[in-house]
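Milestone M4 deliverable, item 7.
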Amino acid sequence: MRAMRPVRLYESSIPSGNAYKVSLLLAHLGIDVPVTALDILADPPETRRPAYLAKNPNGRIPLLELDDGSYLPESNAILYFLASGTRYLPDDALGRARALQWMFFEQYSHEPYVAVLKFWTLWGGLHRKRPDEIAVWKQRGQAALDVMEGHLAGAAWFTGERYGIADIALYAYTHTAGVIGFAIGPRVGAWLDQVRAQPGHVAMKPDAGKAAAT
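Output delivered:
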């Protein structure tokens, strides 16, 4: 069976950690694909209009278009697809499961709090959120970062013995968490430096009005 290849990436016109994950892995793999940046701040967002919903009924980015005409949504699913058969995904079944463990952690225990607080802080509207909501985002986001700090006491990476997609998934929102007030422990800080030092690393795209977010 012929391997399907990516032909286009749909992402956000503003910096998005979930879209950045995919761009970072594509850079590591040396794969260059056209990018369509959608305005998620428009009313309605471009991701919620019929043309895009026909591609991804969930109306979110990122979305990877493949050369057979199909579409693959969800950032971590895209990472897993692109990394299959490469050094960025462990060869053994348990290693792959461990990578998925951290990627599920990222989407369930990390991104819903760190990314959400970042969005409302940098793009406006935090003053309209209830204090108890903000407190939950701060407490649970910090708890996730503390879990990462604990793991790194006995390991260099989150994808087994070498850098891989679990590290990419967690890096996307962790590397800007300090900007919005989360405490970054020394082990997480050192890990962030290790990720930045990887061959082919690219930074998250800047925005003219929110350069601090990168």
